[in-house]
Amino acid sequence: MNSDYDTAAADAAVMHIDLMPYVNALIDARWWLLGGVLCAAALTAWWAYSSPYMYQSSARVSIVDIEDPGGVSPDDRRASEVLTLVEHGFVMGTTHDNYNDVMLARLSSRDFTMRFLAEHKLDRHFYPEFWDEQSGAWINGFEPDRGAVFTRFRDEVRTIDVDEETDIVAVGMVWADPVLARDWANLYVAAFNEFIRGRTLADVARKQAYLENELQRADVVDIQQSIYRLIEAQAAISMLANAREEYALEIIDPAALPYRSFNLSRKRKVLFGAIAGLLVSVFLVFARLTIIQMLNTILAYRREHKVLALQKTEENSL
């Protein structure tokens, strides 16, 4: 019984909904709707044509395990002497279980990024209005904000994506000039290889200087032989670092010249802007109609309440 009553009430509520006021409101506001669409399309077109196309170019690389010295490992040496644990640690250095994560952190680190920006003088591309191409200097002694350049480069220009299945790293650059986007991506990979190579060679030079100093102080033959083996291993690591061009990152697919823009085309932006303007205009029309209906309902309720109050007063007076 109750279910039948609920069904009847629901049907009555549905029948009570009248869509004609909304349709009539849209018809009456058709010129306002058209004006909203045109204004939104015009604003979107102004924004789209005032902002340049952005292009993205990416170089696909693989992280090389430089902690594997390629035959220099004490475990793989063919010498008759057996290296001690101290020699093993001295040759191999600190072993990272999360080696790839460490290399990715260095690839996006502030230290290397600032070096890259300064080495290739990329600041001028972020402040072109203050850079004189003919003289190759800043206009009126302008000093760029290095921190702002780094932040914009990190957030808007450079992209580093890792394929979780293959561990292939895509180093990309987003810029208005497709040639610069391609060149920067390739330069970034090459600069990182040189950066890691420099760290390795500096570490080798420091260890060799220490070993040569200890060799002069050692007077035991076994210790001298151990030091000679360590010096030999450091020399092998140095030769490997200098001989391997793609030292830290192996280039699988270098960055190429992009032919399509990274962002949406201007026509699509204008179309989406017009659709958004139409939706906003329709919403405003419906909101206005709903508010008017609510106000009319409140006023009608008040009038009815006043009439009932007057009738009740008259009945009491009689």
Summarize the structure in short:
This protein is of the alpha+beta class. The chain has 11 helices and 6 strands. 64% of the residues lie in helices and 9% in strands.
Describe it.
This protein is α+β, with helices and mostly antiparallel strands and 318 residues long. It has 2 domains: 16-51 and 266-317, no CATH class; 55-253, Bacterial polysaccharide co-polymerase-like (2-Layer Sandwich), CATH 3.30.1890. Helices cover 64% and strands 9% of the residues. The protein is built from 11 helices and 6 strands. The chain has helices spanning 2-16, 20-28, 30-50, 85-92, 99-107, 110-119, 123-126, 146-157, 178-217, 221-243, 266-317; strands spanning 55-63, 131-132, 137-138, 158-162, 169-175, 249-253. A 4-stranded antiparallel beta sheet has the order 4-5-1-6. A two-stranded antiparallel sheet has the order 2-3. Helix 2 (20-28) packs across helix 11 (266-317) and helix 3 (30-50) runs antiparallel to helix 11 (266-317). It is elongated. The two termini are 44 Å apart. 17% of the residues are buried. Mean pLDDT is 81; it is low at 70-83.
Label this structure with key terms.
alpha+beta, Bacterial polysaccharide co-polymerase-like, two-stranded antiparallel ribbon, 6 strands, 9% strand
